[in-house]
Design goal:
29% of the residues lie in helices and 18% in strands. The chain is α/β, with parallel strands linked by helices. It has two domains: 2-173 and 294-311, Rossmann fold; 181-291, DNA Methylase, Chain A, domain 2 (Alpha-Beta Complex). It has a seven-stranded mixed β-sheet, sandwiched between helices. It has a three-stranded mixed β-sheet with strand order 8-9-10. The protein is globular and about 55 Å long. The chain starts with a strand and ends with a helix.
């Protein structure tokens, strides 16, 4: 069962499929440090570091692709982007980054996999965009289903509502109990003490944040930005008794009990990454890879559903 992972990032989406027994034959990303992370965790995969718009799909036909997965950039669609186009259709057809969704569709059209799964923020199918995406997939021979999944329903210790557009329905079994921040990170040592856990490195707080942190209660943040329904926070103290808030690429969180940033490894735990999944690049690049990923545990559950469909 051969998979190509487009916009592969740090490998969260691919990790779940690999665990489920799929072979990730190729992966594409245009950012070299991210590709280094992918190569480190998927040494058997051909990782191509290139702008997807420059790639010809003929090269990939030799892999006999069964499944195409991918997470095109969400910035043109997410409400946290104060500069996103007002007209939803412009986000897909005019915005140069938004048009990368169409590149995903181009690969699906040319490779004709049995199954595809594309992850993004739910706003990628907002208003007229849903009809536009349905049209784009239907014209290449696929009926799309717009599956909205909440990561916290499936044992991931952080809240994350995302849409998984696929030519199959993704109905997954929910877990009865929510996994909390404390469940996820309680056994990790203080990063300032000796240990051998990858990416569990202490990083000092920025000076402008340090003075505010000591006074923060659970759920309070040192920084707020935006306005109205588009108001967001950063440097939030995690509540140990709840799942973490949504982790974004730019997210930075304060430890529940200590006046410090959580480490990349602690943040990765909140996204269900196993400790043997290493992240390359500078600190900010590592944090970004975690926040922009599909949680591997959720990916694994999706992969199992895909596997059943392929074998039926």
């Amino acid at each position: 069962m051969n998979v190509i992972d487009l916009f592969c990032g740090g490998g969260g989406f691919g990790a779940g499929f690999k665990k489920a027994g799929f072979k990730i034959v190729a992966a594409v990303d245009n950012f070299k440090p991210v590709a280094e992370t992918y190569k480190a965790n998927f040494p058997e995969t051909e990782v191509i570091v290139e702008d997807i718009k420059r790639l010809k799909t003929d090269y990939f036909k030799k892999f006999n692709i069964d499944v195409v997965i991918g997470s095109p950039p969400c910035e043109p669609f997410t409400p946290i982007n104060m500069k996103r186009y007002k007209d939803p259709l412009d986000r897909l057809y005019v915005d140069s980054i938004g048009r990368l969704v169409l590149e995903f569709i181009r690969f699906v059209a040319d490779l004709q996999p049995k199954i595809f799964v594309m992850e993004n923020v739910v706003q990628v199918a907002e208003g007229e965009l849903r009809d536009a995406l349905a049209y784009e997939f239907e014209r290449i021979g696929y009926k799309p289903y717009f599956n909205i999944l909440k990561a916290e329903d499936y044992g991931i210790p952080s809240r994350r509502t995302r849409i998984f557009i696929s030519n199959i329905k993704l109905k997954l079994k929910k877990e009865k109990r929510r996994v909390t921040v404390y469940d996820a990170i309680k056994d990790l040592p203080d990063p300032r003490e000796p240990h051998n856990i990858p990416n569990h490195v202490y990083r000092p707080l920025p000076k402008r944040i340090k003075k505010k942190v000591h006074r923060l209660r659970y759920g309070q943040a040192a920084v707020y930005f935006g306005y109205g329904k588009r108001r967001f926070s950063d440097y939030q103290r995690l509540d140990p008794n709840r799942p973490a808030p949504t982790i974004r690429g730019s997210s930075r969180f304060i430890h529940p009990f200590e006046d410090r940033l959580i480490t990349v490894r602690e943040q990765a735990r909140l996204m269900s990454f196993p400790d043997n999944h290493v992240f390359k690049g500078g600190f900010d690049i590592q944090y970004n890879q975690v926040g922009e990923a599909v949680p591997p545990k959720l990916s694994y559950l999706i992969a199992l559903k895909v596997k059943v469909k392929l074998n039926s």
